[in-house]
Amino acid sequence: MHDIDLRQLRCLVAIADEGTFTDAAIALGVSQAAVSRALAALERSLGVRLLRRTSREVTPTPTGLRVLAQARRVLADVSDLVREATSGRTRLRVGYAWSALGRHTVAFQRRWSAAHADTDLYLVRVNSPSAGLAEGACDLAVVRRAPDDRRFGSAIVGLERRLCALAADDPLARRRSVRLADLADRLLLVDRRTGTATPGLWPPGAGPATEETHDVDDWLTVIASGRGIGVTAEATAHQYPRPGVVYRPVRDAEPVAVRLAWWREDPHPSLQAALELITDLYRSG
User: Fold this and answer.
1) Residue 276 belongs to what H/E stretch?
2) Which residues span the domain enclosing 133?
3) pLDDT digits (tens, 9 = 90+) for 168-193
């Protein structure tokens, strides 16, 4: 295994950027001899010449150009790693699968910025059962199904009505609301990973046929064509209005519980503040 360290890569990049060993040493705050030793050790470890030296200039060899490009990527990745590990108190990433907080999304963003200017808020869409929490893509996740992973804690922050998504020219679209029985002979589009619509909403044996979908845009496209319908949380209608698609309340369906989920063993420092703000938004309507 080649014995390469970040100091050597930093020296290589500094020499290429500054043009001389002397200027690279000044940029790095070390001696010129230290820069020369680091580069020599890197070339010796790789067994290749990386820089061509003359009395007037230092230029990368063809191999050096390839190594230099890789070195820049490695150093950038290390910087990202350090930033990821140390930014926990200055950044809050909230993941969601299909819809964030519906009509409360903008209010959450604005009220958070006003009250917590020292912690930047980012909303991250990840269509996975944990809305990005298990994947490390977010610090907290808005989910509409209770997590079955014991590593996660969760709390209900609000309730949302269930709506039926229909093609705009569907006969049911002329109604102000629909019942589950009205939908039993339709094709129901479901996302088994993250969705809240399942045949379990209907009595045994009385539910509609289903077809799986994996993305909200695909879901809406099929619904607009009239080939299928969707049953979804109210937030979807606010997040994804679409020409050719209308949403109608399903008046005999149980509401959807909106939850905030987090890592039990490593909760984000802003967890409590986020819980309180989101709960207040849903409570106030």
Assistant:
1) helix 271-283
2) 91-157+258-283
3) 999 999 999 999 999 999 999 999 88
